[in-house]
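Anyone have tokens for Peptidase S41? Sequence:
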Amino acid sequence: MGHKLKIVGLLSAGALAGALASISLQTAARGSLAPLPLEELQQLAAVFSMVKSNYVDPVDEKKLITDAIAGMVAGLDPHSVYMDAKTLKDFNEGTTGKFVGVGIEITQEDGYIKVVSPIEDSPAFKAGLKPNDLIVKIDDTLVKGLSLNEGVKRMRGEPDTKVLLSVFRKDENRTFQVTITRELIKTQSVKARIVEPGYGWVRLSQFQERTVADFARKVEDMYKQEPRLKGLVLDLRNDPGGYLDAAVAISAAFLPENVTVVSANGQLPESKFTYKASPQFYARHGNDPLAQLNPATRKALSTVPLVVLVNEGSASASEIVAGALQDHHRAKLLGSQTFGKGSVQTAVCLDGAFRMDNCPTAALKLTTSRYYTPSGKSIQAKGIVPDVMVDETEEGNLFAALRTREADLEKHLASGQGDEVKDAAREKVREEARKKLEEEMKKPAADRKLPEYGSDKDFQLQQAIKQLKGQPVLASKTQVERAEEKKEN
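Reply: yep, here.
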């Protein structure tokens, strides 16, 4: 996610015919035409022919080719993916913030679908699904063996239809079933309120198509309520990212005009770019969503004392914002070192359609660049280090070790900036955190140590307000900057 979708053409010719005795395919590579490897493609054709002829059951030729393409792309890195027509539809829906489904953010763990977070007020949220729940069965289909995209397909559907999920809750060591009615999910990516006189809180849960316009509207309302804000907290905790242009726009709301927000570097000329704090880099079809701000509000945003909250769940576009505001000394960053997703994905419609939302058949989402902060630091597999490390609770950073980071993902890209060191003690820390979480989840909800973000029990938010007031902040005594982790070969 994250890169403003650039549509490029793919050159392809030829077909699998016989054993591919004659192949003259060519493709664009490093800016010039290079022949594809004939011998390896002949092996591919031989395997295709053998499977089609000798497999125990008849196989669909189209599915064989599709699976081969999907496998080839999946072997690159965790964020490159081949999208068939249905997956492509889901991708386009997700970036607008509207889709029909149960309303959960998910990842994969041990072959199962893991709930990262239920979307607030969604059917899954109302049904009681929780972070770290494992979905083991969807209707009558076992999840183990399904790809994440296949799992998503089965949970999405038409409005008002039902899906039966079998869920394993690790901290309670039990499996249960829950029937959820699918709905049109309209995710609200921006929350804002005055937390105490003179101090505001704006939370971005994702960078979607509507995020910047919603941000402008809610900030305007906040300034109407409190015209002389003394300080503002921008909360990017557990924000997984989204549109790059939205991240650039949010950064531009706080930064001087035309300073660098983010740069990227890859193999091809079009994968090398620099985005600046100017409407030409984020306004879609000439429409600047920040233009709806009152000039006085826009000016106030450029000078209001600012603290940004981040944690291990802050990824991609949220890391771009945090890195830009930190490098330009516009904000103090508090919290924990971020996720480390510093790669750019370019979406390519394989039939050459100009717009991704008009792409009728299939597309490729391919990692093409690495992101860099304005000072030139790579975000990839390292993340952004806060100015002040602050734990989640007064008792400590109890459960952060359980969060997946970019460096935990199989086949993750290295940062590209020097050697990386493997943290041998991480699994021990994770096991200790698992035990603590199990004990915590046995307590009544009101007594648990991780309150809702933005509530009066939000410890990190309290420390952010203290930072804005110039009061002493209770910094972590245990958190240290993570070393980059070596990619396993």
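The two ends are 25 Å apart (CA to CA).
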